[in-house]
Amino acid sequence: MTSIFMTKSLIYAISFLNKTLVKEQEKIQFICQIKNLINQLKASVETVVELEKVPTSLFANTGLLRFYLCNNNGDQISANYNFAENQWLVDTEKLGFNWSWREYFYQLRALEVTDSCYRVVTSDRYRDFSSEVLCKTLSLRLDDNRILLVDIAADKL
Questions:
Q1: One digit per residue, pLDDT tens: the chain, 157 residues?
Q2: Which residues of 67-89 are buried (b: 16+ CB within 10 A; e: fewer)?
Q3: Beta strands in 57-145 (DSSP E)
Q4: In CATH terms, is domain 33-156 a member of 3.30.390.30?
Q5: Half-sphere exposure of 32 (CA within 13 A, CB side)
Q6: Rounded Cα distance, 48 and 103, in Å
Q7: pTM, whole model, 2 decimals?
Q8: Could you tell me which of 68, 73, 103 has the C-alpha nearest to residue 88?
């Protein structure tokens, strides 16, 4: 009886491990896809925001809600570039809003004393102010003066 129980337990454990590995591998692949998209966004906003350089087809089914730029003080210096129904929508409502109180913002600024200041910092989950969707913000330093922030649905990460 003990042998049968141990065999069933082992089969269950292996099955669990295999299913979990597949889920984690899919998550890692998705994160790599998002990092590539963020790098494309970064390239499109090097000097001015040029949405025509950012093919909308790349962002379909990624959970991307919007992106925007801030200065080092946390002041939003660009419009929100919202992604909905496979198109970019420009919203200037949050222009000038200060985001420095958000954890992801000061964590990214704290990295300035390390060699990791150009890495992506991911926020905890929070409820998006306009859509009520649970999301995360990914932040990335563009240059000495600007930070790219990308809001993405949390269920995708």
A1: 567 766 778 787 788 888 888 888 887 787 778 787 887 788 777 777 777 777 788 888 888 999 999 999 999 999 999 998 889 899 999 999 999 999 888 888 888 877 766 678 888 999 998 889 999 999 888 888 999 999 999 886 6
A2: bbbbeeebebebbbbbbeeeebe
A3: 64-71, 80-84, 87-91, 121-122, 126-127, 134-141
A4: no
A5: 6
A6: 27
A7: 0.78
A8: 68
